[in-house]
């Protein structure tokens, strides 16, 4: 009665705010609702008006400049993974970052190009625009081999990447509007870490040809990593020595810089910008020594100055890219929300998953009209932005302005930049992902099933490609859930004297059974896949002896077609024990339904047959249910009589 009265008073208090005359709960617009909707759609309005300039501005500016210095070379490098010219990596490092400042809910993550996303986009671009589609034979040399029209090929790959990005944005916006932020719960942490580890292997192998300076075809699809590695090894004798030396020097230098930054991060005011140093020095060396002309070192090449005008994507590619866009959209969001929640928890604020979906979708959709490819957030840049004192997305805004400066003013300076230097940057940035192999011994000790998910996600993604690998990993993760519920652990519980605790009598010596009472526990809900196993385990755990029933417990009846079965709601008090006169004779069985969140019709029928089975009916054993939730009770449709105490004298 108290609960009913409380609910009525609560409805009375709330009703004037959400209802209008003549209706129960109509949808009604108001200035407060409109303001809340605007603030939800533009989170920047919640913090910018009260932005503490004196306390935050300097830190955000320093953080933004530091992040921009890192974002610039990564944008150039990750464009190679996306199979598009490097300048498009700069576009992707400017527009989305600028837009996220207005629509994002995280204060610390750094959005922009990301290695895994870039590799997935590059795989789709290569599949839709392979080299052999653009072979051109010389006009008057029929005996010469065909050459690839790289300009036409790159233009087509840009169209594919842009259209894919448009679809990714649309999907993410729709998911956010429909409140589908929960989809990432199917991407468990072991799955994501196994998947990203496999992606890092793909990225590493794809950069070997740039590090060695060999010419090989780019592969995609099933076993692409095997074909790529085979092609590199097959052509390793044609390695460009100058390219290899420059790349190895860059790798060693970047590794040392990362070590110093990590070792002395508390003493350094800002991390040493190793990546931009490698870019500037290698560009200067390449230009001064004419590495491209004299030593045949591959360089970035032409970087147009200024921004491109907006242009509509090629929607004729829609049917061929729709499947890939779902995969890229989900992976991008899962990376974003995992990092956003991590740093939000660290700094004591919350992020909205659905608004993050909308923010990423808008970043991808709007930016795609300016020739960008799909983005997410990067762990390395986020750590830089947070560790250098970034407080808000003003830091992200400053980082985007650094990239803009390069695009509109000094982009031509990076034209002699060797591609091997970008490969070195990419490879060293993979070190954090390779450290995820340490998960294997940890998972072996804690959870074999999660280890299996990690290994399947990694192996499937390596061998089948990232798209099919992710699908296989998700399906396998779902199968593990079915396996866990289909094969639950069952036990007989005993009471720990002096407490209200009940534990497995086989695992805890102090847990003692009540005489004549068996408390059966199974750590799963009861449904069609495990109902027979539940009943079988019950009969195996509970060994019956003939006895006389000495207690009657308040019950409810369930009417079936053939019979009427009596069930009992049984409550075990903390300190009261039911004393029975006949030792070792089981006269009552308690089914502990604490873990049971639901029970379907098949499970209900199986449970109904327990009291009337030959084993129990012949000796008059009572079967009662403890901790029966309202959902489980409704599956039986009983009239439940709740009692708060059941003392031994009444029993």
UniProtKB/TrEMBL annotation:
This is Solute carrier family 26 member 5. The chain crosses the membrane at residues 76-103, 160-182, 242-260, 272-289, 357-374, 394-414, 452-483. Residues 507-627 form the STAS domain. SUPFAM superfamilies: SpoIIaa-like. GO terms for cellular component: membrane. It comes from Scophthalmus maximus (Turbot). It is a multi-pass membrane protein. Its main location: membrane. InterPro entries: S04_transporter_CS, SLC26A/SulP_dom, SLC26A/SulP_fam, STAS_dom, STAS_dom_sf. GO terms for molecular function: secondary active sulfate transmembrane transporter activity. It holds the Pfam family STAS. Keywords: Membrane, Transmembrane, Transmembrane helix. It comes from the Eukaryota. The gene is SLC26A5. It is found in: Membrane. CDD domains: STAS_SulP_like_sulfate_transporter (cd07042).
């Amino acid at each position: 009665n108290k609960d009913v009265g409380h609910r009525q008073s609560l409805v009375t208090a709330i009703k004037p705010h959400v209802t209008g005359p003549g209706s129960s709960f109509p949808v009604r617009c108001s200035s407060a609702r409109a303001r809340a909707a605007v603030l939800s759609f533009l989170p920047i309005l919640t913090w910018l008006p009260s932005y503490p300039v004196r306390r935050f501005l300097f830190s955000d500016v320093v953080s933004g400049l530091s992040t921009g210095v890192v974002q610039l070379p990564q944008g150039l490098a990750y464009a190679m993974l996306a199979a598009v010219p490097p300048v498009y990596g700069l576009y992707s490092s400017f527009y989305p970052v600028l837009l996220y400042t207005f629509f994002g809910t995280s204060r610390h993550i750094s959005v922009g190009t990301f290695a895994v996303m870039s590799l997935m986009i590059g795989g789709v671009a290569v599949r839709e625009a392979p080299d052999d589609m653009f072979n051109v034979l010389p006009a008057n040399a029929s005996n010469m081999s065909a050459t690839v029209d790289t300009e036409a090929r790159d233009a087509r790959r840009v169209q594919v990447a842009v259209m894919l990005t448009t679809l990714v944005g649309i999907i993410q916006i729709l998911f956010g509007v429909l409140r589908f932020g929960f989809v990432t719960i199917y991407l468990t942490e072991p799955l994501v870490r196994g998947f990203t580890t496999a992606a890092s292997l793909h990225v590493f192998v794809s950069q070997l040809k740039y590090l060695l300076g060999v010419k090989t075809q780019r592969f995609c699809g099933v076993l692409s990593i095997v074909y790529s590695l085979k092609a590199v090894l097959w052509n390793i004798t044609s390695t460009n020595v100058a390219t290899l030396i420059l790349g190895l020097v860059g790798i060693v230098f970047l590794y040392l810089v990362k070590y110093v930054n990590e070792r002395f991060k508390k003493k350094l005011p800002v991390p040493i910008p190793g990546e931009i140093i490698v870019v500037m020095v290698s560009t200067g060396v390449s230009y001064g020594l004419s590495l491209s002309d004299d030593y045949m070192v591959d360089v970035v090449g032409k970087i147009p100055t200024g921004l491109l005008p907006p242009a509509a994507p090629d929607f004729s590619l829609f049917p061929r890219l729709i499947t890939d866009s779902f995969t890229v959209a989900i992976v991008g969001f899962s990376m974003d929300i995992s990092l956003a929640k991590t740093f939000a928890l660290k700094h004591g604020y919350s992020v909205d998953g659905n608004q993050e979906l909308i923010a990423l979708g808008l970043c991808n959709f709007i930016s795609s009209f300016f020739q960008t490819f799909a983005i997410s957030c990067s762990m390395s840049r986020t750590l830089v932005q947070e560790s250098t004192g970034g407080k808000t997305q003003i830091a992200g805004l400053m980082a985007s302005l650094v990239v803009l400066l390069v695009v509109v003013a000094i982009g031509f300076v990076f034209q002699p930049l060797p591609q091997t230097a970008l490969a070195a940057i990419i490879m060293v940035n993979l070190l954090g992902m390779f450290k995820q192999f340490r998960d294997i011994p940890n998972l072996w000790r804690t959870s074999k099933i999660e280890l299996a998910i990690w290994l399947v996600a990694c192996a499937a993604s390596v061998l089948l490609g990232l798209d099919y690998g992710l699908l296989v990993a998700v399906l396998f993760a779902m199968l593990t859930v079915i396996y866990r519920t289909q094969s639950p652990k069952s036990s007989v519980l005993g009471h720990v004297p002096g407490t209200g605790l009940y534990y497995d009598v086989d695992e805890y010596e102090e847990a003692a059974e009540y005489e004549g009472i068996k408390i059966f526990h199974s750590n799963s809900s009861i449904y069609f896949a495990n109902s027979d196993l539940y009943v079988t385990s019950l009969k195996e755990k509970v060994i019956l002896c003939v006895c006389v029933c000495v207690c009657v417990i308040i019950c409810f009846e369930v009417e079936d077609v053939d019979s009427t079965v009596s069930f009992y709601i049984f409550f075990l008090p903390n300190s009261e024990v039911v004393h029975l006169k006949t030792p070792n004779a089981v006269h009552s069985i308690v089914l502990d339904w604490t873990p049971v969140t639901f029970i379907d019709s098949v499970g209900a029928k199986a449970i109904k047959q327990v009291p009337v089975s030959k084993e129990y009916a012949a000796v008059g054993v009572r079967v009662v249910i403890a901790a029966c939730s309202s959902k489980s009770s409704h599956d039986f449709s009983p009239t439940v009589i709740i009692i708060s105490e059941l003392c031994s004298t009444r029993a």
